[in-house]
Amino acid sequence: MKDKEVKTRMKRGFWKPEEDLILKNCVKTHGEGNWATISEKSGLMRSGKSCRLRWKNYLRPNIKRGMMSEDEKDLIIRLHKLLGNRWSLIAGRLPGRTDNEVKNFWNTHLNNKRSCRGKRKHVKSKEANTQSTQGKMQEYPAETVSNQEVATKTVLDSWIEEMQDFNCSLLSPLTMNNMPFLEDEPFIPILDDIVLLEAFTSTGKEAWNEIQPFL
DNA sequence: AACGCTATCAACCGCTCTCGC
DNA sequence: AGCGAGAGCGGTTGATAGCGT
């Protein structure tokens, strides 16, 4: 009841530039993570959750905004194939991108289920190239792929192959309950804790170091 | 020019996880 | 061990920009 009262008194909706400024200063003063304190001390009448979200998705330093590069798109597709809807994990591999941004990008550009919901009447010219590459991640038309992209794809291919080999040796057979292994949610935590850690600390780390200059 | 429709994305909601007591 | 508070995550919603008719 009390919570509800507090909730209804909280301000909602889009953030104004002046609110952003106040939040930035508060984070500087109280530190990132103390959202309850920030919410209280800022006087913004925003919930701690709301402050956290705004900071994480917009105000945090080194946030990269704007269109996803081809490399980023490719990485998202591949990591999603590997991890499923673990947006924070995927975003963690894309420097400067947020989980919300990756999630939105997936839902609007790459998620076939959603994009097939209604046929697009129009396609913005800037998106034309994106649309044409959907659902064709195994094919790399030579005329559209730069040397950097080839390098990135080669590294990623071998890296993902290694990780999948590792998965198979851990939990073969390849399928469980007639479902592809990687789509089987109960095994995702294993991917997080063991496979990903290993992948990014040994051979995977090397692969990641090779990819990073292109991002 | 006006209207309808769709795509986009910021923000919210509810659930789970983590940590301190 | 159990509980509560706060943080984090993924799914969903709603406002709005912009294109087609």
From TrEMBL:
Annotated HTH myb-type domain residues: 1-63, 64-114
GO biological process: green leaf volatile biosynthetic process
GO terms for cellular component: nucleus
Region (Disordered): 116-139
Subcellular location, record wording: Nucleus
Domain Myb-like: 7-59, 60-110
Chief localisation class: nucleus
Entry superkingdom: Eukaryota
Molecular function terms, GO-annotated: transcription cis-regulatory region binding
Entry keywords, A to Z: DNA-binding, Nucleus, Repeat
Protein name from the UniProt record: Transcription factor MYB82-like
